[in-house]
Amino acid sequence: MRLRLSSLYFLFFLSGVSGLIYESVWSQYVKLILGHAAYSQALVLTIFMGSMAIGAYLTSRVIEKAQNPLFYYALVEIIVGVFGVFFHSEFLIIEHTLFYDILPNTDNTQLANFFKSSAAILLLLPQAILLGSTFPLMSSAALRINAANSGSTIGTLYFSNSIGAGLGALLSAFILIESVGLPGTSLTAGLINIFVGLAAWGISKNTSGTPLKPLPSGRTTPQPHDSLLSLPSLLILVSFFTGFASFLYELSWIRMLSLVLGSSVHAFELMLSAFIIGLALGSLYIKRKIDTLENPRRVLAYIQILMGLAAAATLPLYTNTFDTMSWLIQALKPTDQGYILFSIGSQLICFVIMLPATFLAGMTLPLITNLLIKTSVGEAGIGRIYAANTVGAIFGIIIASHLLIPLVSMKWTIISGAAVDIVVGLAILTLATSNLPKRITYTVSTISIVLLAAMASTKFDQEMLSSGVYRFGIATLPPQSEILFYEDGKTATISVIKHSDDSISIRTNGKTDAQINPAESLHSADEVTMTLAALIPLAMNPEIKTVANIGLGSGLTTQTILASEAIEKVDSIEIESKMIEGAKLFGSSVDKVFTDPRSHIFTDDAKSFFTSNNKRYDLIISEPSNPWVSGIGSLFSTEFYSHIKRYLNNDGLFVQWIQLYEINLENIASIVMALDENFEQYHFFNTDNANMLVVAKISADKEFKLRPLTGTHISNSLHRIGLTSSTDIATHYLGGKQLFSPVFEELSQNVNSDFFPALSYSAPISRFKNANAIDITSLHTNAIPLLKVLNNNQYPVSTSGTIHFDPNVLAQRARDIIDGKADTVPEKIQFALSIVNSLERSCRSSTPEPSSISALQVIAGSINPYLSRSELDTYWQNLINICDKSSNQALLNWINLHAAIAKQDMKEVADLTNGLLTNMPLLTVDQTSYLVTSALLSNIMSGNEKGFYHLVSKYIALSEFRVLPFDMQLLIAFGHRSFNEKSTEPF
Q1: CB proximity list for 962: less than 8 A, separation 6 or greater
Q2: Does the N-terminal or the C-terminal CB of the chain have fewer CB atoms within 10 Å?
Q3: Under a CB-based contact definition with an 8 Å cutoff, are residues 867 and 793 in contact?
């Protein structure tokens, strides 16, 4: 008997693993239908719990008639497994029908939402109903084997299944989805179910000759303190309200902890697993005591009361988690190992908040179930309790996500749940333990109310909540900041902050999404990106009339688009209504967004909006938050781009804002290659050095150029970000598909996909490691003017400057260097200038002085990338004249090389670099890198294939180049593509 029970417990553990893998995967799939992770999680939980309630209830109606419930359990597990194996194919059919057949013919938002929800229900309902029947069936089978210790058996089953579920949540988040994608993860869960079913069938087959006997259905002997009012209906109600309150807690805790841990996919799964593990530990604890309790109803009452108080006590605890996270961020190194410790620390924070209440919650269902099966309800009580609990959970999910959190805040949602648990506990004391002295009930009631009121008086510091502590380890806002707006929305917490310099930022879960400085003479870095997101496409196509903007943010992009009188309509799509309310506080900076009749704002998911609206646009701009935020990665996927291009006119443009901070080059590559699969042409623009814009077209133009922009309002927008004319936009150009696709194809480990969401699972690690991809925009300031050469000097050097765009600022510094204004440049350059100014003495030496070579390289890197050939020619010619008749040929060759690079004489560059690499054995790593990069560029531009591959084979394998600089990676990949040959080097 013991062996069979242990086997069943293990199988039910595996069933719990697969069950939470399904919940995790389903959330990802349903997100692709609904559009936001918060919506999909709430709906998946609702469907998951609702379907399981149906399954549990239906099973409870027939369980006592089943001769061998283990056989039916095995059958259900196998069917669930088959659903899991084929789930992806089923999803594709339903998604295609929804987005290609139903929604395009639906012009009503409410009706569209109904169809989307119906599609999700159709997708999940059958499998979830079957999952709901597994607990009653397995419990019945186990109880028939060990009826004498029913409480221990029920408790062990709850523990086994719950601890498996906690492990399943972690497996899906940290291993499976990233490794094998959504289809592979669903397949894995399905195979687990099939294995469990086959194993259970084998056990049931071995006992088929002696059918398992049902439990007796009569009442047990009344206990001394039992009340006639202690009816099964009371226990079912208790189960309902326990489930209701627990999910008020869970959804509130997840939203609250998102402000501490961040709102990544990993953070969500850590929170979910902590909640479930707490339930499991509670079940494990009570299972050892449940069969020996003298008065289990009174124990149940006290547990309910303590659970409510423990949940309320999380409020003062919560305020301390920000300091804990601050310490954790500052104590850990931003490495892969640090991220593991960060995840462990985050899990511990979740445990501190959730464990006391969830531990108590884990005791309740085994207690209630054991009490009910010993009444006249008998074995059928297992399914009824389970069904009542899950129905309560459904109401908790709906009320928390759609009413309490948006209307009264997360804090009061928890207080509401605590009040429910306390009232339920007091009701049990009053109704089910009538012999208990009233003074005890009154005392318990008074103490509970006083403690609940004390917890409810906890004040949340909104500055702390808005700090985004999980990013920089600082649990407060900058000095002299003022909270203008703070609201808990349906999907996120939105805050608007006024800073000491009078700039205003809008934040989502503590993460700044946009910042504007209202002063006429100042502008923020974000304003450059938001303004150029509107102006660049207008410069590329002056005929743009209809625009859709995904992600309202501050509203500045929409405001800038409306500056063009040619624009007829701008539709802004924002999924969080509180973001729209917060954006209004930017005042006159975005007033047209809310007053101009051409502007229309829609609260919807982008994918469903375009499908339901079914209209084409001349321009679509996508301005999502960072890809590490849960749910955002799907706005950078190949499936999203495939879908969105259907709503562009023939000559339409698509603009993608990509943040280059808290992300690495491989992450960027996964986005770019997703674009590459769907657009024939795209161009990259640097905005403020930390962000870039990609402008894409479905079909390639024969000629790409930026046209002058006209109009007073547009001129004002340009001047606002430090540009004197529309031609200055061209200075932000980086390059097009021909230049960048080769290197991103090499860097891309996976194309970002809805079904293989590499970005969503790798970007949180990049965020923690403070990674960045500014190597892309740093090409503008590369010591060798690669972009000038590779883009054939298509775009000019700017004469205006902005503090948020280095090339323009550095261009002015370059002119100061040439003009000899040493006092206006950094000390390093001043020192280099002093050496170069005494070059005549160095030229007399027979061997080049290392300091002279280094100084020349510093000066070359400070002027060559930023000035025109005509400006540079005089400077370098003067230096050549100084050393022209010198015997120091090596030093003269270095001067000639810098001059040739400035003139873009690629043949001379090739000759000089070859000579210097061959004849100078004591080069530093920096000098070697400079020479090899110059040589690669010159061989590519002169078509010298042999010379190019000689460089790759000879120098790229050197130890100092094992991690290649991005400029080298770009040139090698571009060269391979240019010479029509695949790379064989691991770079």
Answers
A1: none
A2: N
A3: no
User: In angstroms, rounded to a whole number, what is the distance separating the alpha carbons of residues 650 and 627?
Assistant: 29
Beta strands in 467-554 (DSSP E): 482-488, 493-498, 504-508, 511-516, 546-550
Burial call 602-632: b when 16+ CB within 10 Å, e when fewer: bbbbbbbbbbbbeeebbbbbbbbbbbbbbbb
CA distance 791 to 591: 39
Q: Residue 805: what are its φ and ψ, rounded to 5°?
A: -145, 100
Helix (H, G, I), strand (E, B) or coil at 692: strand
The secondary structure of 842-889 as a DSSP string is HHHSSS--HHHHHHHHHHHHHHTTTS-HHHHHHHHHHHHHHHTT-S-H
| 715 confidence band (pLDDT: 50, 70, 90) | confident
Collapsing DSSP states into helix, strand and coil, what is residue 575?
A: coil
Sign of dihedral through CA atoms 538, 541, 543, 548?
negative
Structure tokens at 284: 């494990």
d(CA 24, CA 702): 46
Phi, psi (5° rounding) for residue 223? Answer: -85, 160
Q: What is the largest CA-CA distance in the chain?
A: 115
Alpha carbon distance 387, 394 (integer Å)? 11
- CB 332 within 8 Å of CB 260: no
Q: Which residues contact 668 (CB under 8 A, 6 or more apart)?
A: 658, 660, 744, 747, 773, 776
**Measured CA distances, 301 to 30, 296, 390, 413, 431 (Å):** 38, 9, 20, 22, 10
Whether 274 contacts 354, CB under 8 Å: yes
Burial call 856-893: b when 16+ CB within 10 Å, e when fewer? bbbbbbbbbbbbeeebbeebbeebeebbeebebeebbb
How far is the C-alpha of 837 from the C-alpha of 818, rounded, in Å?
Answer: 11
Residue 822's Cβ-count burial label (10 Å; 0-12, 13-18, 19+) is middle
- Rounded to whole angstroms, the Cα distance separating 490 from 236 reads 30
Q: What is the pLDDT of residues 538-570, one digit of tens each?
A: 999 989 999 999 999 999 999 999 999 999 999
CA dihedral (546, 550, 551, 556) positive or negative: negative
Q: Contact, 644 vs 620, CB < 8 A?
A: yes
- Map residue 683 onto helix, strand or coil: strand
Distance CA 368, CA 592 (A): 59
Residues 102-130 have a mean pLDDT of 84
Q: Say if residues 697 and 681 touch (Cβ distance below 8 Å).
A: yes
Distance of CA 852 to the CA centre of its chain: 49
Please report how the helices 869-883 and 806-818 are oriented relative to each other, as an axis angle in degrees rounded to 10: 40
User: If DSSP codes are grouped into helix, strand and coil, which group holds residue 582?
Assistant: helix
Amino acid letter, 264: S
Contacts of 126 (CB under 8 A, 6+ apart): 83
Mean pLDDT of 176-196: 94
Residue 411 has pLDDT above 90, yes or no: yes
Six-digit token string for 641: 């781009």
Q: Determine which helix (DSSP H) or strand (DSSP E) holds 736, and give its type and residue range.
A: strand 733-736
Cβ-based neighbours of 850, under 8 Å, separated by 6 or more: none
Instruction: Give the model confidence (pLDDT) of 332-371 as tens digits.
Output: 999 999 999 999 999 999 999 999 999 999 999 889 888 8
The tokens of 474 are what?
């600082």
Cβ atoms within 10 A of the Cβ of 987, count?
18
**CB distance 537 to 490 below 8 Å:** no
Q: What would the mean pLDDT of 775-791 be, rounded to a whole number?
A: 92
Q: Which of 542, 312, 337 is nearest to 413 (CA)?
A: 312
Instruction: Report helix, strand or coil for 489.
Output: coil
Q: In a 3-state reduction of DSSP, which class is residue 486?
A: strand
- Predicted local confidence at residue 821, as pLDDT: 80
